[in-house]
Amino acid sequence: MLLSDPQTTTRRFLSAALLLLVVFSAVHLRLAYPPPPKPVVVRQWASMRPLIPDSVLYDFVRQLLAQADAEPPGPLSKHPASFWISRVLFEHAPIMLNVPQVMDTDFRYRYGEESAPILEQLYAERILSAADTAFMRQQVARSTDFRLESRFLPACKIISVELLRRRMKRPGIPNADFFTAIDHLKRAYRTEHVSFLSAPLFSRDGRYAVVTVTLDIGIFCGVGNRLTLVMYKKQGHWFPFQIITD
Predict the structure, then answer these.
(1) 163: which of 22, 38, 150, 232 lies 20 to 30 Å off by Cα?
(2) Distance between CA atoms of residues 103 and 114, nearest Å
(3) Would you tell me how many other CB atoms lie within 10 Å of the CB of residue 35?
(4) H-helix segments, the chain
(5) Is 209 helix (H, G, I), strand (E, B) or coil?
């Protein structure tokens, strides 16, 4: 009977220990940092389905939020991002309650509006083709069910627009208007800022996306409070291509 070489035995022991360590580390990371749930949005039977899969939409929103500051840059900000978005968000634009004045050049859907001149500008700059803009208009028509869900965005707090509606009719706040209800929600969620996104619109080849961000909704709702972000996808990652302020 041949005895194993001590060095061979040691190498086998170290290899087995290393393999065990790798498996243990992988299991630990999986439990400590579970992947976000795959978006499966429940929609009513026979309702219109969006042209863009929910997984694509939420991957875009997650990357967008990861690149944005959570609050406006201040004098002490060391490395401010190119833009900021509050991590307290309305599930969709509450325009059905606020009913802002919409420019004739904008086209509007149930939960938001998009600027037609911006799409025309992107077409004139040959960033988008005529087929892309037509495809984006089709997405607007199919975005009637757009809303963000907190279970797919665990790093954010998502406020239901229905909660805002109830706040506006709350008996303890007689004749509460839109902005009074917003202020009550800000105090309830302990935040100074509440943002919301339009439904992201994607080019036909999926390389470009356009999304409008209302940075803060409340008393400060004026010029410079809304951004249109043109994002470019490269090797699976989204990057800012243009940032257009109103």
Answers:
(1) 38
(2) 10
(3) 6
(4) 6-32, 54-67, 95-98, 116-124, 130-141, 161-168, 178-188
(5) strand
Q: Which two tokens stand for residue 29?
A: 């990371």
Cα dihedral 229→93→116→56 (10° resolution) = 50
Is the pTM of the predicted complex or chain greater than 0.85?
no
Instruction: Classify residue 239 as left (phi > 0), alpha (psi -120 to 50) or beta.
Output: beta
The pLDDT tens digits of the residues spanning 92-142 come to 888 655 544 445 556 565 666 677 888 889 999 999 999 999 999 888 877
Enumerate long-range contacts of 166-172, CB under 8 Å, 24 or more apart: 168/97
pLDDT in tens, 160-192: 988 988 888 776 666 668 888 888 899 999 999
Let me know: does 246 contact 230? Beta carbons within 8 Å: no
